[in-house]
Amino acid sequence: SRAYSAKGMHAAAIAAAQKGLELDPDRTDLLIDIAYSYQQSGRFKEANRALEEWQRRTASRYDNFYGSLGVALLSGHRDEAFANLERQYREHSGTMILLNVDPEFDSLRGDPRFRDLVHRVRLDRARG
Length: 128
What we know:
mainly alpha, 0% strand, 2 domains, Serine Threonine Protein Phosphatase 5, Tetratricopeptide repeat, single chain
């Protein structure tokens, strides 16, 4: 579904993610993908419903990085998103290597805090 979203094919992204949820209801990360695609399509009520469903399903489970980051970004809580990224940095999370390539971070790229984080992870040198 992320490939469809990256191409602006949000209806296809939503359909693919919903199919994935049918096949594996434990793939709650797909609810974040659905919310993102709804938001990008201007369907904010549906986006909020998908986020609420994600929060309901994951309330008693491990707080996964992409899920909580996605919720923060889709809700417009940039400071919360950066707090999440800083926690991942302190914990030496392997997901940090995706900072320069994952479209999930696109809305943060212009922020000086993001550039600082990329520098601390030493990804600014990787672009050669």
